[in-house]
Design goal:
globular, about 80 residues, four-stranded antiparallel sheet, five-stranded mixed sheet
Length: about 80
């Protein structure tokens, strides 16, 4: 069961799922700079720019991927990220 501040993050590239699991905060490279997304964020679809996708869990912060482009779909308690490495 996920903690109350967590949401489900899925990061996928052309080869498959890179990460699927709980997350407290995800940092996405966007045209406005680095965008932080938390649980209950405003729903949106965002185009990614070159940069790093990073996430924070209860055990710390980690880099998931360095991307050249991609898309992110943000819903109330789910974030799905499709990346091109």
């Amino acid at each position: 069961m996920a903690a109350k501040d967590e949401f489900t993050l899925t990061v996928t590239n052309e080869k498959g799922v890179m990460y699927y699991g709980p997350c407290e905060l995800v940092f996405l490279p966007s045209q406005r700079g680095e965008t932080a997304v938390m649980r209950h964020h405003t729903p949106m679809i965002m185009k990614l720019t070159p940069g790093k996708v990073r996430m924070k869990t209860s055990s710390g912060t980690q880099d998931i991927a360095t991307v050249t482009s991609g898309l992110a779909y943000v819903a109330e308690d789910v974030v799905s990220v499709l990346v091109d490495l």
